[in-house]
Amino acid sequence: MVAKQLSYLAGADSAGIVLGARVPIILTSRADSVDSRLASVALAQVLVASRQDSGA
Are 47 and 24 in contact (CB under 8 A)? Predict the structure, then answer.
């Protein structure tokens, strides 16, 4: 609820991923902007890179 309020009232971007899987699952809404979708992809890439660096 707070995330939606920040998005609509403050113009904030959000990123959505599902944790706990072997690979990050990008979770976006149909109403999300292109910037939010790109932020989700960037966050997933950061998680993949951090897992590769740690050897997991």
Answer: yes
pLDDT per residue as tens digits for the range 13-54:
778 888 888 888 998 888 888 888 999 999 999 999 988 887
Paired with 17 in beta bridges are: 26
29: nearest Cα among 16, 13, 47:
16
Residue ranges of domains in the chain: 13-54
**What is residue 32's DSSP assignment?**
-
Q: Which residue has the tokens 């609820």?
A: 1
Task: Give the pair of three-digit tokens for residue 22.
Answer: 């072997």
36-46 CB burial, b ≥16 within 10 A, e <16: bbebbeebbee
What's the pLDDT at 45? 93
